[in-house]
């Protein structure tokens, strides 16, 4: 591909003309960038009127321009580790989403002037207020999770101790205690259930500061900082592989209390501290996990507070059921009844939401653990036995706001439907299954007194109703990789996942009150030859409205 200045000659001419007009020099032009060097004058108010400040800088047009914004490098005076400045030194002039191919050099020049003025005054607009101190420390792969209530345990104290439980084999830990008070129980239980927990505990010290500190690079600078805050520390001894320090302070941008996690540990016993500097300080990423934070990006799209109190019952946690419930958990549904009598086998994995780490576990229990890793505050009930007993089904249905049947078994679906009709709450029921080796999937919504029941649907099929699309079997033999008592039907995994997400979306329509009269959906993933003509075109969705039949003796309509 030609360099950008040859692909967009008019743009290059306009950009070059602007910067030369501002008395910049074109310092370099090559494939890896076009560079202009010059001076920008910024005037800000002082005690004696406007003060003039000159900044010599580079404007670097990268190879990806105009799809990538130019980079700014400060030469004289050098500006490093300032507010709203990225780690590579370039100022954050505007959000990435604000950059467009049509943004002109004059607008870029204005943005630089504005940033420098804010930098000189020490105050950025509220809409640019972002806490960014951790970004100025060297990166480390280790991350720590904590909860919003953790800092409450350190209220009214100036210093103390904390522990972090590291998950062995992962670059991840959980803030476990602050001053011997547990703060990480739910997170650690979600990530590593007691039966499989393998953790290594690290003890650290925390100190309170009255204000956000400037960035620093080593333990000598950290020791001086803590000394000025009234804390006496000594970092001269050789640190452990992880040597954690916590700083608690109100941030300058928003005034919110923050915990900055630091690590100056060394891996080698032969490592030596740098003369006059001490040990190098890094900053593990600290993530505050809460239901609000987990679902922040759904704000305005989902009523997460309502979904949090909703209960979904799902019978069948295989190729459709497992991705369906994980999708609903990610949308904010807070309670699940998980039912499946089978264990996970290697043959399941091609069409399942789980992986090899869960082989041999009951599907219901493994999915339960998966949901907790998505949302530690999700509430679940698992059932693996007696799922064909009417009393067991009655107890499952009684606690559900909606029931999903992803079992692909006509008789089991009829039994479940009967349990729903006999219940006091009579929750809506969604059926989902793939057909013809995954060439087609069918989803049906059954609301008592509104939609056709399973018996009604069977009658529509038997009488050849024009709305009903009959999908023939493939003739492929069943797969008996888990024994003769549990045959599996061959079918494409992608279609199962599509069916799961489609059914999950319909479930949300019901839960959020958006469902209309449509209650039957049939998607054709691949054309089915020698069958109903409506199955001849791939990528088509057929919708229907099946009403309760007056002659149905099952639903009582």
From TrEMBL:
InterPro entries: ThiF/MoeB/HesA, ThiF_NAD_FAD-bd, Ubiquitin-activating_enz, UBQ-conjugating_enzyme/RWD. PANTHER family: TRNA THREONYLCARBAMOYLADENOSINE DEHYDRATASE (PTHR43267:SF1). Pfam families: ThiF. GO terms for molecular function: tRNA threonylcarbamoyladenosine dehydratase; ubiquitin-like modifier activating enzyme activity. It comes from Conexibacter arvalis. One of its GO terms (biological process) is cyclic threonylcarbamoyladenosine biosynthetic process. This is THIF-type NAD/FAD binding fold domain-containing protein. Residues 300-514 form the THIF-type NAD/FAD binding fold domain.
């Amino acid at each position: 591909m030609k360099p950008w200045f040859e692909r967009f000659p008019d743009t290059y001419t306009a950009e070059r003309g602007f910067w030369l007009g501002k008395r910049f020099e074109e310092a370099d032009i090559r494939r890896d960038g076009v560079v202009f060097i010059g001076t920008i004058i910024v005037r800000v108010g002082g005690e004696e009127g406007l003060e003039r400040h000159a900044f010599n800088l580079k404007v670097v047009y990268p190879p990806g321009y105009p799809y990538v914004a130019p980079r700014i490098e400060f030469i004289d005076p050098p500006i490093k580790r300032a507010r709203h400045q990225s780690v590579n030194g370039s100022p954050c002039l505007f959000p990435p989403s604000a950059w467009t191919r049509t943004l002109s050099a004059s607008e870029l020049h204005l943005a630089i002037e504005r940033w420098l003025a804010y930098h000189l005054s020490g105050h950025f607009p509220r809409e640019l207020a972002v806490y960014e101190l951790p970004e100025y420390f060297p990166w480390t792969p280790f991350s720590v999770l904590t909860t919003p209530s953790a800092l409450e345990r350190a209220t009214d104290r100036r210093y103390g101790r904390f522990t972090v439980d590291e998950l062995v084999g992962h670059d991840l830990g959980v803030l476990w205690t602050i001053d011997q008070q547990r703060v990480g129980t739910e997170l650690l239980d979600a990530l590593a259930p007691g039966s499989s927990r393998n953790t290594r505990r690290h003890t650290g010290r925390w100190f309170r500061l009255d204000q956000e500190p400037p960035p620093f690079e080593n333990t000598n600078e950290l020791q001086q900082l803590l000394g000025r805050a009234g804390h006496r520390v000594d970092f001269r001894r050789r640190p452990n592989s992880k040597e954690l320090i916590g700083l608690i302070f109100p941030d300058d941008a928003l005034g919110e209390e923050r915990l900055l996690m630091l690590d100056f540990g060394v891996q080698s016993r032969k490592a030596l501290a740098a003369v006059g500097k001490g040990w190098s300080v890094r900053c593990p990423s600290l993530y505050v996990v809460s239901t609000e934070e987990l679902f922040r990006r759904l704000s305005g799209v989902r009523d997460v507070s309502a979904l949090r109190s909703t209960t979904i019952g799902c019978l069948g946690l295989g190729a459709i059921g497992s991705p369906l419930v994980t999708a609903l958990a990610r949308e904010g549904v807070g309670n699940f009844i998980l039912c499946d009598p089978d264990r996970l086998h290697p043959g399941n994995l091609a069409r399942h939401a789980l992986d090899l780490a869960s082989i041999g576990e009951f599907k219901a229990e493994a999915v339960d653990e998966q949901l907790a890793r998505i949302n530690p505050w999700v509430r679940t009930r698992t059932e693996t036995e007696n799922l064909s007993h009417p009393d067991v089904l009655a107890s499952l249905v009684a606690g559900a706001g909606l029931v999903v049947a992803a079992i692909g078994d006509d008789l089991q679906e009829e039994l479940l439907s009967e349990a729903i009709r006999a219940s006091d709450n009579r929750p809506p029921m969604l059926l989902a299954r793939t057909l013809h080796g995954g060439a087609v999937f069918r989803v049906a919504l059954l609301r008592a007194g509104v939609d056709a029941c399973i018996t009604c649907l069977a009658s529509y099929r038997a009488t050849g109703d024009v709305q009903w699309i009959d999908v023939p079997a493939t003739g492929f033999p069943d797969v008996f990789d888990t024994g003769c008592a549990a045959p599996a039907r061959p079918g494409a995994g992608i279609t199962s996942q599509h069916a799961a997400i489609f059914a999950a979306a319909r479930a949300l329509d019901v839960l959020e009150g958006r469902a209309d009269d449509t209650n039957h959906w049939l998607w054709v993933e691949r054309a089915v030859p020698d069958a109903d003509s409506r199955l001849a075109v791939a990528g088509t969705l057929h919708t229907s409205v099946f009403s309760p039949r007056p002659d149905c003796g099952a639903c009582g309509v």
